Amino acid sequence: MPLETDLLRSFVAVAEAGSLTRAGERLRLAQPTISLQLRRLEQRLGRRLVERTPRQLRLTAEGEMLLPYARRILALSEEAEARLAEAGIEGLVRLGTPEDFATTHLAGVLARFAQGHPRVALEVTTDLTLHLVERFRAAEFDVVLIKREPAGPAAGIRVWREALVWAAASPDAFARPGVLPLVVSPHPCVYRRRAMQALDAAGRRWRVAYTSTSLAGAQAAVRAGLGVTVLPRGMVPPDLAILPDGPDLRDTEIALMTAEPLSLPARRLAEHIIRSLEQQAAGG
Questions:
Q1: Are residues 277 and 136 part of one domain?
Q2: Strands across the sheet with 241-242, in order?
Q3: For a tag site, which of 83, 153, 154, 215 has the least CB within 10 Å?
Q4: Do 230 and 100 belong together in one domain?
Q5: CATH code (residue 11)
């Protein structure tokens, strides 16, 4: 009997997410449903695929063996479905995203979606998270990506985790005496708040020297020596120095939110973004 793709999809989601809850969030299924599908797959194969530990789920040797095959089966299934059904999908999808995240991570993701869905028009808007949330609540977006604290609001699905670092034009920025100049985004901003909290906790005096609404503007200000900034590690350009001697910075998250009701083109874009970013995070 062929393996059911629904069971394989739940298995892959559990393997990648590391928990039933997060797998359920990704597939928009209840945790008991994910658990039942995983158990059905194990019964179908007669093999235990997952070991449950107090903190997370871990694949068994048989689960590790099955995972690449499951991914290939799902990829082929999705490709066949896309060729037969997606070609007819058309409409407008309005996406809101932080400018820095779009610049670094979304260009290729959106290009691949556009190639696979030539009749879907993408309207992409970049803005600060505060404005994105306000406009999303005003029904101006179908899909929106926002920055948030790891312990932030439950709304949305976490699609990316960002390790933050200090960056400056000179590697000795923290060794210099006096008040530390900062280059930040306007309030409220997760990175801005994280920088100020870390410096306050370390007892280091600071001042806002430059405020920019764009990643390019902030990088230019730092490059000119106007101050130190906080950036995701992957967004630090080669000509800026990462400062390991700064106060510790905790990670932040990027979450995806979708409107209700959600059109088919918008749902396909949301699924594509989630899948693509998970592959990026896994190094694929």
A1: yes
A2: 229-232, 164-168, 241-242
A3: 154
A4: no
A5: 1.10.10.10
Tell if the pTM clears 0.70, that is, is over it. no
* Same domain? 243 vs 104: no
Contact 184, 229 (CB under 8 A): yes
* Residue pLDDT, tens place only, 93-116: 999 999 888 888 899 999 999 988
Q: Which of 102, 146, 95 is nearest to 122 (CA)?
A: 95
Half-sphere exposure of 66 (CA within 13 A, CB side): 24
Give the domain CATH number at 263.
3.40.190.10
What is the extent of the structural domain holding 174?
A: 164-250
Rounded to the nearest 5 degrees, what angle is found at the Cα of 254, between the Cα atoms of 143 and 79? 55
257 within 8 A of 137, measured Cβ to Cβ: no
Please give the single-letter amino acid code of residue 179.
Answer: V
- Could you read off the pLDDT of 34-70 as tens digits, one per residue? 889 899 998 989 989 998 876 678 899 999 999 999 9
